[in-house]
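hi! just following up on the protien thing from before. the input was this:
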Amino acid sequence: MKNSSLKLYLEINNFGFIFLVGESDEYENFKIAYKLETPLQGIENSRITNLEQVTDVIKKNIYIIEQELNHTFKEVVLILENFELTFINLSGFKKLNGSQILRENITYILNNLKSCIDKTESKKTILHIFNSKFYLDNKKVENLPIGLFGDFYSHELSFTLMNSNDEKNLKTIFHNCNLKLKKIFIKSFLKGANISDSFKNKETFFQIKINEKNSKIFYFENNSLKFEQNFAFGTDIIINDISKVTSLKTDTVKIILNKIDLRNDISENELIKKELFAGDVFRKIKEKLIYNIAIARIKEIIELMLTKNVNFLNYNKVSNDVFFEIDTKSQLINLEGIFERIFSMYGNYNLIPIKSLTSENLINTVNNLVYFGWKKEAIPVLQVKKSVFARFFDKIFS
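and the predicted 3d structure came back as:
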């Protein structure tokens, strides 16, 4: 399959490497041409711990893909979900004194704020910059107010950074695989962009994902990624609690949770059916007991992620919209209803259940961002210093 429209993407998440090849058809629709998943190796605790091992895994699987598709790739787009990140929000200002805002004013603020980040975070690399807020004379404006007149302009940028050594290691890995690293995307940004495009009236929101062994929350404001936070727990703590109290195997607990109706009005005398015990010895265990244990743990999860989370409380003043998903790998989709009921007990949250982002949606979002950009992503402009003579002639002829 010799096809110049084939594009290579690699997602590195908490579970493994996902290699995706996308292609455009005759109608310019972008779709998956090939997908390959392999377990995570050489990466632990959000850092590359074995450079040679990661290189070997990626090189071996790209070779398999290239042989299968009869195509040689020269570049790759990387999607990261499990690396340590830093989020910084900074504002720049411009006194206008009644004059007009020019594009040069915006460029100056953007470059100045980027320079501040480069100096203060010298060991980190900027991955994303977003134009998150604009204020003209203390009034919020939705878009860049170029051409408008005012006295004082304020411009906020939101930066996403990763450790420079991590970025260098990734570049080295792909260089050793004869691939150019075209672009690095943070998956939270991709998911936020996808939600924003799917729900046209939602530009500011939280997104929570509960995985089997970890969870994550991120905040999108004015179509800009402002922060994300990871938690070292997931649906496993619910399973383990029930298993500990009932002495049931974890696999049996999963079967029970997916089969019984976890509702408020479960009868106090309703017992778990014998056929749900799988490899466990049948015992008289009440459904209400399972429900109560699950409720207690889910309340704790919500408190840790939301109601007692300083980051959430800080941004919760802006938005109450919370997009929520339980990863399908956890095989506990039935817990979604309990989460919704408990959310309703903690104030005026607008919980919006969503499905996990499919591979097709993911690469379509990435492809659009690579080639068309994002409405709130900012790109610093390199300002070349002019010589004395150049400045002299500029002054004469301007």
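The longest helix spans residues 287-307.
The first strand starts at residue 7 and ends at 12.
cheers
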